[in-house]
Amino acid sequence: MAAITAVSDLKPFKSMWKIQVKIIRLWKQYSAAGGLTIEMVLIDSNGVKINASVKKDLVNQFDSFLSQGSSKIIINFSLNPSCGSYRTTIHPYRIGFLSTTRVRNCDDLPDALTGFEPVNYRDIIDGTLNTDYLVDVIGQIVEVTPIEVVSANGKETHKLTVELRNEKDERLPMVLWGNFATDVSDAIQGRGENTIICVLRFGKIKVWKDERSVSNAYNVSDVELNPFTPEVEAFAALLPKDKLALAIVEPKPLALTAGAGDKNDFLVEQCIVMCTIAAIESDMGWYYLSCKVCSKKVLNVPNENADGLDDEDEMGFHYYCVKCKVKNPKLMPRYKLHLVVVDNTGNSKFLLFDAIAMQILNRPCNELTGNSFEE
């Protein structure tokens, strides 16, 4: 069987990867465009994290095999660039499950492998951190406002503002919304005068009039109070020994903006660009394998004997054409060029498929790959 690949070594030029990971965060997410999906944050034994997603059409296929805290071997999946303003990891790519992805049980990775990496308050406050990435935060709750009901994105929701402090007595505002607000408010009231340590996983850095705070990011985030973890014990031991009491304060007025961008942000138009091809992204691969009959991309399907953990042979798989319903069809390589282009205003990335790429290269793809090609 092919060796386990480190998450840091994953590249999009093929799908037949095999990884051993722990699911440290799992949630279901609904959007008008993508429907109901399963989202996860995975971590390998080296502590490297990557986001993974199961699209709506495959949720029923994989739902029962995936649970937060479990360790899995995952075989055969796509890799796409990680982008957007709610990125859970710094990995440049994210995993996409395929209908031919295989999920297998394995020995549990260590309990201590949580991926918890609390950031410095100062890096949030002074703008050092990129707000596109979600962050972990730990702090003692020293101030809390009464829970409010406010209007956000046209709907009424609960809002709770607390102030955290770290071991250096630096302060950081945290705003919680929805069920996070009510759950934390109820928990605080039940703990009386005791010191309350809050752990926020995958929180969003918010900026309003040059003031920065952290907030829960929809269902992505997780909030715990006084969890029994080594990190919390170590943090509590470093806090100032001033027995600071929890203060109840009046909420500050907050201007709310709609979460969606202006519709003009999504206009698509035809245009002509005069530019220079600076590079081809090799990580993305430069061709794909298609069925020679129908021209559709073929799928890689792991062979059943590829799951044996003691087999030292290379992982076996076969090709399958979904349209023709044929196993191991005749293959034809076709161009898929990921170009980095530049002009005097900046740079961008273009994707060229077979017909357009051939106009530039003046040679068919199979002349460059030869008869012996791999994914």
TrEMBL record:
This is DUF223 domain-containing protein. InterPro entries: Euk_RPA1_DBD_C, NA-bd_OB-fold, Rep_factor-A_C, RFA1B/D_OB_1st. Residues 273-369 form the Replication factor A C-terminal domain. It holds the Pfam family DUF223. Keywords: DNA-binding, Metal-binding, Zinc, Zinc-finger. The keyword Zinc-finger applies. The keyword ATP-binding does not apply. GO terms for molecular function: DNA binding; zinc ion binding. Belongs to the replication factor A protein 1 family. SUPFAM superfamilies: Nucleic acid-binding proteins. Residues 5-106 form the Replication protein A 70 kDa DNA-binding subunit B/D first OB fold domain.
